[in-house]
Amino acid sequence: MKDLASLPEGALRFEDGVPVALHAPSSGLTALPPSVGELTSLRRVDLDGNALTVLPAALAELPRLEVLTLYGNRLDAIPQELGRLGSLEHLSVGGNALTSVPGTIWGLTRLRSLNLAENLLTEIPEAVGDLVELRMLDLGHNRLGGLPDSIGDLPNLTDYLYLSDNGFTTAPRWLGRLDRLDYLNLTDNRLTELPDAIGDMAALRELRIYNNQITRLPDTIGRLGRLRELHAMNNRLTELPESIGDLSALRHLDLRNNPIRRLPDTIGRLTRLTHLDLRATRPRELPESLADLPCLEKLDLRWTKLDRNPAWLGDLRDRGCVVLL
Predict the structure, then answer these.
(1) For position 2, what pLDDT does the model report?
(2) How far apart are the first and last CA of the chain?
(3) What are the 10-residue block averages of pLDDT along the chain, 325 residues in total?
(4) How far is Cα 48 from Cα 80, in angstroms, rounded to an integer?
(5) Whole-number pLDDT of residue 142
(6) What distance in Å separates the CA atoms of residue 228 and residue 322, rounded to the nearest whole number?
């Protein structure tokens, strides 16, 4: 294992004299010695932010490996042999130049997180649905034209799903089947609407849909009783559904840079709302019900053109709410 001397000093971490981790992020590595495959006790390999262009197939000889992070290298392929890493739970190969993923990767059924973001992927196969332990999936910043229905059947997808910056024009209806998901990111696409099924995502706490072309929110959005944050800036919304007032857990509502001309009175039912961003929207007036929001800490009205500023804005300020005009 003489070629291991090419690794940075201190890169190997030991427990009881046994190497358990290879930790060499941002170390300028351009190659990984094949003899790393002889370190069969390794449980973690962190090589983020290097300059690796290829991976040795010998990495597949690490039977105890649980974490493999290769974010921000120069890989245009990963060896199919990595599908033999039966103990792997976390795989990050984002920020590379991958145009495809070997089919063997979908056999890593113990994976709990998979980061494929910031690559050049054009498709994801139905076999992604075999990753039944997956809790976190990042497919953002690729060139995906569509997504397989099988993602909607991932039973443990609970933590996050990133689908940003792929050029999608429609959001899949199967999102509604992900009724345990906490966080959904659909930003920076070309969406014009959300499916009614979005209202079935009962566990959703944060929804990010900014930088799209969405013209309306479905009435069903009011069924998201656990939603705490809705980020919808830079869309084409002209109004909000009355059901917006049913979002009883909502804390943060960002509507800036939408051509919204009217806010429903029901917005005054958002009793937990702390931040409301209406910058560069177009309402002629504000519903008086906003004055009764007990938790409101910040109301941003910059670059709006109200016919007049309501007197109750002063009352909001008096009780400590920051009002920006």
Answers:
(1) 61
(2) 67
(3) 77 94 95 93 97 96 97 97 97 98 97 98 97 98 96 97 96 97 98 97 98 98 98 98 98 98 96 98 96 96 94 94 96
(4) 20
(5) 98
(6) 20
Contacts of 251 (CB under 8 A, 6+ apart): 228, 229, 272, 273, 274, 275, 295
Q: Which residues contact 192 (CB under 8 A, 6 or more apart)?
A: 169, 170, 212, 213, 214, 215, 236
pLDDT at 14: 93
Instruction: Report the C-alpha gap between 218 and 162 in whole angstroms.
Output: 21
- Contact status, residue 48 vs residue 71, Cβ threshold 8 Å: yes
Phi, psi (deg, nearest 5) at residue 22? -115, 110
Q: What is the pLDDT of residue 31?
A: 93
Are the C-beta atoms of 134 and 156 separated by less than 8 Å? yes
Please name the residues in contact with 141: beta carbons below 8 A apart, sequence gap of 6 or more: 117, 118, 119, 164, 165, 166
Closest CA to 267 of 289, 283, 239: 289
The answer for residues whose C-beta is within 8 angstroms of residue 311's C-beta and 6 or more apart is none
Instruction: List all residues 6 or more positions away from 249 whose beta carbon is below 8 Å from its beta carbon.
Output: 205, 225, 226, 227, 228, 272
Among 150, 65, 74, which residue's Cα sits nearest to residue 106?
A: 150
Q: Which two tokens stand for residue 111?
A: 């994976």
pTM over 0.90: yes
Interatomic CA distance for residues 47 and 51, integer angstroms: 9
